Amino acid sequence: MTNTQYIPIDYYIWLAAILFTIGILGVLYRRNAIVIFMCIELMLNAVNILMVAFSSYRQDAAGQVFVFFIMAVAAAEVAVGLAILVMMYRNTQSTDINILNRIKW
Amino acid sequence: MTLYIFYFLSFLAVLSALMVVFSKSPVHSVLYLVITLFSLAGHYVILNAQFLAVVHVIVYAGAIMVLFLYVIMLLNLNQENEQHKTNLLKFAAVISAGLFMILLIGTFKGTEVFANVVGGQSEIGMVKNLGLVMFRDFLLPFEITSLLLLAAMVGAVILGKIDKPKKA
User: Fold this and answer.
1) Tens digits of per-residue pLDDT, B2-21?
2) Which residue, A23, A65, B20, B29, has fewest beta-carbon neighbours within 10 Å?
3) In chain A, how many domains are there?
4) How many CB atoms neighbour CB B99 within 10 A?
5) Predicted TM-score (pTM) of this structure
6) Which of the listed CATH numbers 3.40.50.740, 1.20.120.1200, 3.40.980.10, 3.40.50.300 matches domain B1-79?
7) Are B118 and A6 in contact (CB under 8 A)?
8) ipTM of the predicted assembly exceeds 0.90
């Protein structure tokens, strides 16, 4: 383990855990819907880095293919989400999520 | 040497991720998120996932972040008069996130210590290898992904359309 050429996989697990927690913190902490979207991206990326780390650890390319699919899903999600956001802004003149209270019945 | 690069990139990623959450203006949040994503691309390079690193930079920094910036600038959201949650709610958010972190720590502490390491030389992340796996084992999911992207595109166009008042 003294060889600094290699990185223990625990380090990647901790990094992903910290990034995921920061994403959750952002979703709970902010009221601006755009920032909440960015924090969701942060969580997706935390999962991605863990998946690549395990793919490299197991020497299995399937994990990296999965990351590729997650990126495609993230792109689709952002496109639709930002479209919803623009529509919401057009109707309410704000991106405050508290305005979405009226959606509930 | 690699370990020091790992520490540097992780520090950069975590710090700018925190700045995404706590910076006042949404544009600053986006720029900090770009820093985070670039440091994650550096992690991919360390992990011998060169193709994914390039795709990550193109898709995230090149497409998604530009989309975010466009929306922020189109909607003129760059004012700093954003409503914030009450201090009680913020406190509750921090507590909840901390509890989640404790949950994760407890989960990973309970597992056996991974003695193995990642890094070194490997051809796994090259285009040839990934392409073989993707088009041999994951051909159907790949095609379904194209369907998903088409659906997302149609949905975004329909949602973004200004709906005119209907004539009764």
Assistant:
1) 888 999 999 999 999 999 99
2) A65
3) 1
4) 11
5) 0.88
6) 1.20.120.1200
7) yes
8) no
